[in-house]
Design brief:
Strand order of the largest sheet: 4-3-2-1-5-6-7
Strand content: 5-15%
Number of strands: 11
Bound molecules: nicotinamide-adenine-dinucleotide, magnesium ion
CATH architecture of the largest domain: Orthogonal Bundle
Distance between the termini: 39 Å
Helix content: 40-55%
CATH topology of the largest domain: Rna Polymerase Sigma Factor, Chain: A
Shape: globular
Largest sheet: 7 strands, parallel
Radius of gyration: 21 Å
CATH superfamily of the largest domain: RNA polymerase sigma factor, region 2, helix turn helix motif
Length: about 425
């Protein structure tokens, strides 16, 4: 597989400051961290648009501080509430509904987009920004999982640049910068990518324990503070599965050259291994402001108000193999990526639907991989030239069938 995403420094020109920034998902965990970076470096950004979901109160607070010309929310109720919360004399345009996010992503009013919506809803906006030649700070890994080929092609055709916010992929970006001049050079000189994983809250637990875990237990991640969906994905190791696919798309390597290493301290964020045996790692405290600032300001580095990494205090760093038998999501993601260009879209949809059901206490934790496996077995591969509409149809159909599976099996599967 050839890498089409021009993340390399010579291809990611030093865009001028202040950068015109739009944030999709500003009210989420990544969005809030990003606006903390912006607040520390106000002179570097003009925030042109902020898009939240239904949390009008949080969005109003952010908008009151930053005064973007455009805001977006998911429904009319949120839009009405938002209007009542904005200060007198500030009357931004308020866009409503799913198309609002794509409109903002494609708008000529911004040149830097932080794509930080959670889930499949991030796919079309990310694709739109790629088609418009934008600089995209990408947190929404699901968009590459669903349509990585389409996004890569759009980047190649438009000159769009993707800067990976996901901490592992950002670590790899940093470990590759300056060590390989072009994407072709990197492909030749790179031997493997090593993605680290914390192992989540259930590392080392046995099957009986996993069968009985609750959403509350799964939501308490040992090292990172994140949104609900990615926290459950971290507990099931599906997050690492999605990240393998994300890495293959970003760096143009086959799955066989991406390794996962469990590293419970979450200090080494990933490693790039070169053909001479050198492994370059990126280390830091587990705080998403570091990769976010790196992407928003690249290639400039900025100060961040946080405790710095003190390795003497950390003491020891440990590494171990992931347990793919107890955590089948890792295997399922690799199989989906190998199966066809559309299997990852089915994997992602089944996972999102299953995670939502688990959070509602309607299925057990280990039903998540079971339902995904059923969905993958049922999915009929689409041809290589499948478009965005085809992939979204797979997404919708997979979710529908999964709900039917649940309804047919009564209260739950296991
Ligand atoms: P979150 O749940 O905290 O926030 C999600 C944001 O998306 C919110 O602003 C919400 O209002 C908005 N949103 C939700 N559904 C939407 C929809 N249908 N349409 C439009 N907007 C919608 O999630 P998060 O933890 O910030 O994660 C965001 C993305 O970043 C995910 O793709 C996740 O995998 C990725 N990511 C997160 C972290 C992290 O530390 N949180 C790390 C790496 C990658
Ligand atoms: Mg990650």
């Amino acid at each position: 597989m050839k890498s089409y995403i021009s993340i390399w420094p010579p291809l990611a020109p030093n865009a001028p400051f202040p950068r015109r920034l739009a944030v999709l998902g500003s009210t989420g965990s990544i969005g809030v961290s990003a606006l903390r970076v912006v607040a520390e470096h106000r002179e570097l950004f003009n925030v042109t648009a902020l898009a939240g979901g239904r949390n009008a109160r949080r969005l109003a607070g952010q908008a009151t501080l930053l005064r973007p010309a455009t805001l977006a929310v998911l429904d009319d109720a949120a839009a009405r509430e938002l209007k009542t919360l904005l200060p007198a004399g500030y009357a931004p345009e308020i866009l409503v509904g799913p198309t609002a996010y794509t409109d903002i992503a494609a708008s000529a009013e911004n040149d830097l987009l932080l794509s930080a919506i959670v889930g499949a809803a991030g796919f079309l906006p990310t694709l739109a920004a790629a088609q418009k030649g934008k600089r995209i700070a990408l947190a929404n890994k699901e968009s590459l999982v669903i349509g990585g080929r389409l996004i890569r092609r759009a980047c190649r055709e438009s000159g769009a640049v993707i800067l990976p916010v996901d901490s592992e992929h950002n670590a790899l970006f940093q470990a590759l910068c300056g060590h390989a001049d072009t994407s072709e050079g990197a492909a030749r000189e790179l031997a493997r990518l090593i993605l680290t994983a914390s192992g989540g809250p259930f590392r080392g637990r046995d099957a009986a324990f996993l069968a009985a875990v609750t959403p509350e237990q799964a939501l308490s991640h040992p090292t990172w503070s994140m949104g609900a969906k990615i926290s459950i994905d971290s507990a099931s190791l599906m997050n690492k599965g999605l990240e393998i696919i994300e890495a293959c798309h970003l760096y143009g390597l086959p799955v066989s050259r991406v390794r996962v290493l469990v590293h419970p301290q979450s200090i080494v964020h990933s490693l790039a291994e070169y053909v001479d045996g050198s492994q370059l790692a990126h280390l830091g405290v587990p705080d998403m402001r570091i990769p976010i600032a790196h992407c928003l300001c690249f290639p400039r580095r900025v100060t961040l108000d946080m405790p710095k990494l003190d390795l003497a205090q950390v003491g020891s760093l440990t590494f171990e193999e992931p347990d793919e038998e107890r955590f089948p999501c890792l295997r399922l993601a690799k199989e989906a990526f190998a199966a066809s260009p559309s299997h990852p879209a089915a994997l992602n949809a089944a996972n999102e639907a299953a995670v939502a059901l688990f959070l509602q206490h309607r299925i057990k934790f280990m039903d998540i991989p079971r339902l995904i496996e059923m969905a993958l077995a049922r999915h009929k591969a689409l041809p290589e030239d499948a478009g965005a509409d085809d992939l979204l149809a797979v997404d919708a159909e997979t979710r529908r069938e999964l709900i039917t599976d649940i309804d047919c099996s009564g209260a739950g599967l296991s």
